[in-house]
Design goal:
The structure is a single chain. The protein has 1 helix and 2 strands; from the N terminus they run αββ. The chain is α+β, with helices and mostly antiparallel strands. A two-stranded antiparallel ribbon has the order 1-2. A hairpin with a 2-residue loop joins strand 1 and strand 2. The longest helix has 13 residues. 0% of the residues are buried.
């Protein structure tokens, strides 16, 4: 199975509130775009042993 590129961004508490507001207003038909590409948005908390995106690999 080929893996697609998965950009990762860790956000701090100041960035979290507006992000959650946008994500919370999304519906099933909401389409997310990043640099001209259709993307899927996944928001989840970091687990205790995770600090950076590299920890997710």
């Amino acid at each position: 199975m080929e893996h697609t590129q998965r950009p990762c961004h860790v956000v701090d508490s100041a960035t979290l509130a507006p992000l959650l507001a946008e994500a919370g207003a999304a519906r099933g038909e909401t389409r997310w775009q990043a640099e001209g590409h259709r993307v899927r948005l996944v928001v989840r908390p970091l687990l205790p042993h995770e600090r950076t995106c590299a920890d997710l690999d």
